[in-house]
Amino acid sequence: MGKQDITLSECIQRNDRYADCFNAALGYELIRADRLDNVERIQEGSIQFAKAVLHYKKERDGIREYHNVNGVSCAIVCIENQEDIDYAQAVRHMIYDAYGYNRQLIDIRKNHEAVNMLYKRGFYPEDRLIPIVTVCLYYGSHEWDAPTHLKDLFDYSMMPEDEADIWQRCVQDYEVIVLDIRRMPDEQLAYMHTDMRLLFGLLRNSD
What we know:
The protein is built from six helices and seven strands. Strands 1-4-5-6-7 form a five-stranded mixed sheet, with helices on both faces. Strands 2-3 form a two-stranded antiparallel sheet. The protein starts with a helix and ends with a helix. With about 210 residues, the protein is an alpha/beta fold. The protein is globular.
């Protein structure tokens, strides 16, 4: 993690700034700072396979729990800072979010086991997950040109054309939401109401 990356990570730890960045990336006034709660930035856990267990540990640049007007958690909103262009960003974000969903599965199972020690199913039909959304704050000097869709990374050239068309319809996609700070339009900047608006405005004109 570079010095600038650390500085930006520190800046967004304040909830109003965090909401500003997230809303600017979405281009929509969705997140309110007073409904954000801190979450442990280090995500770790394990995924059980038939013959092996995968252990993982990842520190996220930003992660918050978002709750509704009744104080009930309804979403997890994450931010990843990026100075360099990563052409596999779609895969990375998908993995990070998958870790988050796996964490929810683990917590749901533990909650059930706390009530009933004989509970073995892991997930009841009525159980539900809360959505996870990750945005990328990119502040590099070059325009972001990496694929923002997982589907754009796939190679179908070795398949017959008629089969490739079917495969493209079957394969699931994953989209990366990127805020290219140095090239963000005024419309996105308008969603910011804290001093982050000044900072991002300066970055846009730093050249």
